[in-house]
């Protein structure tokens, strides 16, 4: 049976639509969490993760006074020692959005004394 001129174009359009639906489904599965809930990113947020379940692709929103704090993505050693290794990603907007990677994601405030006072979190994403 002979195909019409538009058959190839229809297959391409259908394939693009299916791809769009699949990509949208991945985005819809991501959750957005405000670190510290209403209190935002502040001292003693290190227990904020208790009872929460995170997945890779979820987004953490850090809300804070950018004149007093920051957010630094660190490794396990940086988290434990409250120090930002060279080249660490530093966020300073006061309304930062960070997408979680699979595994444990570590964040501290690098303003002197803040991390030691509990301004740090470790978030494990499945």
TrEMBL record:
It holds the Pfam family Cu_bind_like. InterPro entries: BlueCu_1_BS (IPR028871), Cupredoxin (IPR008972), Phytocyanin-like (IPR039391), Phytocyanin_dom (IPR003245), Plantacyanin (IPR041844). Transmembrane segments: none annotated. Residues 1-30 form the signal peptide. Keywords: Copper, Disulfide bond, Metal-binding, Signal. The keyword Metal-binding applies. PROSITE patterns: COPPER_BLUE, PHYTOCYANIN. The lineage of its organism: Eukaryota, Viridiplantae, Streptophyta, Embryophyta, Tracheophyta. Residues 31-126 form the Phytocyanin domain. This is Plantacyanin. GO terms for cellular component: plasma membrane. One of its GO terms (molecular function) is electron transfer activity. PANTHER family: BLUE COPPER PROTEIN (PTHR33021), PUTATIVE, EXPRESSED-RELATED (PTHR33021:SF425).
